[in-house]
Amino acid sequence: MSRRGWVLFLSMGVIWGVPYLLIKVAVEELSPSFLVLARTTLAGLLLLPLALAKGHLRPLLPHWRPIAAFAVIEICVPWLLLGVAEQRLTSSLTGLLIAGVPLVGAALAWSGGARLTGDDDRPDVRRGLGLLVGLAGVGALVGFEVGAGDATAVLAIAVVAVCYAVGPIILTRWLSHLPGLGVITASLLLTAVVYLPVGLLQAPARWPSAEATWSVLGLAVVCTALAFVVFFALIAEVGPTRSTVITYLNPAVALLLGVAVLDEAFTVATAVGFALILLGSVLATRSARRPVGTSVPASRQPLDDDCGDLARPGTER
């Protein structure tokens, strides 16, 4: 990997590990729905001029149905539920539980998602073991780190994990030929329109504190708008397959920030749970080696468009 590739890779690992901390700070004062409205509006408006200048919005018009579905599953539902969950769970625990997204993606692919994604890998002993190991890690976190009254928050995170696993399937099957910058910009602005009524109704009566305000700005500007621009550059530099490795760095960043900034607890169960989830995700999602000369399905080959391939499971937002 080139020096530029390493810089982009490390930048993405940090940028998409930060949102859990910022969400935790923001929901102390703001409702989850208002936070989604503010984040998507600001980020969408920042990306809009770039998408228009590149002509990446016009090709989307005939594909508004899958774009709407992607917006609902990838942004509307999970970003709201993340805010709801972090009203009760720590930011580090939330980030670690979200690390199980690749496990959900693997399970979906094996249970029928392969027909949509073009993934022709089949379950084997190694990948099955990976699922079991990853689930054991999730069980360790839930069993030792989650309080008795936090079952609703854990359920919300489970729905988020499913959404984050299904979103890339929609991209792969229906949107992978479209410019990614346009798809993301349209999805953000569509989400903002959806949340406009309820977000305004739940807007704070007074201007929030500096911590909450900076958290919203950080989520919108750095963790959303800038993040996707950097992610497109990373894909162009190292390819879509290598770019997914950031999945395994994001939870570690979330954990370190939660412990260092918010004084969240770091226990033996936390360390063991994260290690098991990480190991299980690697085992469950690692593609089987193909014999020399075996072709790769077209749907899994990198796209030529510099912003056209976001359809890779497990990337954090």
Present the secondary structure layout.
Blueprint: H1 3-15, H2 19-26, H3 32-53, H4 64-86, H5 91-98, H6 101-117, H7 125-145, H8 151-175, H9 180-201, H10 210-238, H11 240-243, H12 250-262, H13 268-285
Helix pairs in contact: 1-10, 2-5, 2-10, 3-4, 3-9, 3-10, 4-8, 4-9, 5-12, 6-8, 6-13, 7-13
What do these coordinates show?
- By secondary structure, the protein is mostly helical.
- The protein has one domain (3-289, 296-300).
- 70% of the residues lie in helices and 0% in strands.
- It has 13 helices and no strands.
- The protein has helices spanning 3-15, 19-26, 32-53, 64-86, 91-98, 101-117, 125-145, 151-175, 180-201, 210-238, 240-243, 250-262, 268-285.
- Helix 5 packs antiparallel against helix 12 (250-262).
- The longest helix is centred in the last third of the chain and has 29 residues, at 210-238.
- The radius of gyration is 19 Å and the shape is globular.
- The two termini are 23 Å apart.
- Residues 290-315 have low confidence and may be disordered.
Question: Outline of this structure?
Answer:
The chain is mainly alpha-helical and 317 residues long. The protein is built from 13 helices and no strands. It has one domain.
How many domain modules?
Answer: 1
Mean pLDDT equals 84
User: How large is the share of residues in beta strands?
Assistant: under 5%
Helix content: over 70%
Which properties best describe this structure?
70% helix, disordered C terminus, mainly alpha, 317 residues, 13 helices
